[in-house]
Amino acid sequence: MALSGAVRASLSDEALAIIATAGIETDADMACFWTSEEEILGLYQGEIAGPLVRAWRLANQCFARENALQPLNVPLKKSDPVPVAARPKKRCMPPAVLQSKACRVKGPQPVMVAQPQHIESKRSQHVQLMLDVVLASGSANLKFSPVELKVRAEVLPLFMRLLEKVSDSKLAALVSTLKRWIRFAECHLPADVVYWMPSAMTLSAFLQQVAQGGPTASVNVYHNMRWWVEHMGLPLPVQDPLVAMFKQPPTGYAAKQRTPIALGVFFHLCGMLQSTTGTVKAFIAWALLLCTACLRFAHLQRSVNLRCENSLLSALCKKGKRKQQGVQQPFVWCVPACPAPSVCIAPILLLEYGELCVAKSDVDFIIPDLQLPRSGRLEPGTPKLLRRMSRAKFCELMRSLLRAIGVQDEDVDQLSSYSFRRFMPTLADCQDASYEARLAVGNWVEAATDKVTATKAGSAMPIRYSDEKAVTAGMTKLRMLVSLDISRQRCSAGDLTWAEVSRLRPSASKVEKALQSAAWRAGDDMVPKHASESEDLEDEDDDSSSSSSESSSSDSEVSAEATPVVSWFVQHGRGSVHLTQRQVQGRLVPWCRDIPFDVAHSERGYGIDIGAERSLCKKCVARAPPAIIARFT
Questions:
Q1: Is the pLDDT of residue 547 over 80?
Q2: Alpha helix positions (H), 361-496
Q3: Which of 89, 275, 420, 540 is deepest in the core (most CB within 10 A)?
Q4: Residue 201 has what pLDDT?
Q5: pLDDT tens-place string over residues 309-364
Q6: Is 386 strand, coil or helix?
């Protein structure tokens, strides 16, 4: 081989065998065979990777030095056009990140521009990758000229600003679409045809293959490819009739709305919230929150500042759907803390959200991801992860929960996040709510466009400019839930249906009277249902919490078997186990204290299984009711 002495000396015998098998003969061949050190480490493991990396570095240095010392003797004629097939390999091959592993080892590739080792986020990687694709298109780019993109370091901040209003999920979808197209091009395009300048027939064949995944699959991919043309300037033939026919679904396709959550399922979830513990209880609370909030799942997962005031849960969605001056505006949403009488989701939601805020100060989601066991079952002890749960995973867990409570498979298969979002609008329709109330259910401000409600469209402006529209929406939902509960009490024929909700709806006066009941209120100091049955001994809460504790005390006197589940928590790994007395503003109060600890707890649980190496707090044992201590002896 014609390798230099320094490169040859840095290679082991096994590495030399790999070089010979790959057909590398010179330093230039080796410098252009791999694009980065990461690629070498990804292809080879063990002791072979180290010598290959060192040799590749030396080969790059030797290759660069030789090019600097030996300029071209015969310059190229500027008037002679360079055909596509004769273009450099760097122009023909996509960035290594977008290629499949099989394509990366087919032949030599040039050394790409080194990416920074410390990239801030996934978004920065996507933006830099898009810039690499634009630079590769060169003079064929429809939007940028090579002169404007000469200095990459100066252009990158401009690209960051250009894509500032594009969401992270949208960037990921665009990169995924381009990667999917490149994989198709690797198998169907000739080697001398660049991936960003295919024929219309080839691109149409790609979309036809995508269409096999569903009637709207090719539509989404087409619009993503069109985005690359309109914003990045790639010369893809998206306007050709062979390709443009995929911008709409096939003839005869009609979008089908999801069926809202059944009333029986809603009531069953409210009942399960009382009897479950741990992660299962939290998941049911998240489901009830989504059911009564009338929110998109994506908006729920970009909300912050969850709090409870005046029996209403509220939070701020950082980016909604409606745009003003090209910017998606934030909005405040509000839901009742009690979806059913004496069923309060606020304590568990505030507790879970408070733990997220302690672990991560800038948390921007409500529902965390779950680390499921190998069985895939949701259990009370399922640990939570410090990242947002995806919509697909939430729906899959909800389907498994519905199957467990006996819902039919055909109803479970139709479940989606919009099944939760359609619950409250369907309830408002069955209760014959006013047009303003229906707008308040979803906190909508869009004006009506049909002729029937065009005369009422002016009501959207007062809602839009009101500073308390979120509270109004929360109270409107609360009245609808109170009316639903009265209709349920009136129904004597088993399960309540939507038709019976319309027939048995109560008057406004009865709804207002039932709304004054303490069962629909949650005070500032919210007592979780798993707390001790005799909290009234040392609890100085408001009227609603004291009434609930008194009823709990009377129940415990009747039967010792009705003792609630014991809740406990630990402040740090080696500390004692504290028994939970109550909950105040999302923080747990032990029996040994009257106020929460300054530092949030590190672990919490339910039941008497606290671990063999742990011991109960002596002060908690001294102050806790004997009925609770007896369960640990």
A1: no
A2: 391-404, 409-413, 417-421, 423-430, 435-441, 460-465, 469-490
A3: 420
A4: 92
A5: 888 999 998 887 777 766 778 888 999 999 999 888 988 888 888 888 877 888 88
A6: strand
Topology (CATH level 3) of domain 263-520: hpI Integrase; Chain A (1.10.443)
Backbone region of residue 326 per phi and psi (left: phi > 0; alpha: psi in -120 to 50; beta: other values)? left
Confidence of residue 553 (pLDDT cuts 50, 70, 90): very low
Exposed/middle/buried for residue 323 (C-beta within 10 Å: 0-12, 13-18, 19+)? exposed
Order of strands across the sheet with 587-590?
587-590, 577-584, 567-570, 603-606
pTM attached to this predicted model: 0.63
* Residue appearing with tokens 């499921």: 372
The HSE-up count of residue 225 (CA atoms within 13 Å, CB side) is 30
How large is the angle between the packed helices 217-232 and 200-210, nearest 10 degrees?
A: 140
The residue with greater pLDDT, 300 or 611, is 300
Tell the residue number behind the tokens 């004597």, with chain if given: 492
- Give Cβ neighbours of residue 242 (< 8 Å, ≥ 6 apart): 200, 201, 203, 204
3-state secondary structure of 618: helix
Q: What is the DSSP letter of 379?
A: -
User: Encoding tokens for residue 380?
Assistant: 């009370």
Q: What is the DSSP track for 568-608?
A: EEESSTTSPEEEEEEEETTEEEETT-SS--SSPPSEEEESS
Query: What does the domain layout of the chain look like in residue ranges?
Result: 1-112, 114-255, 263-520, 535-632
Six-digit token pair at 164?
Answer: 């500032």
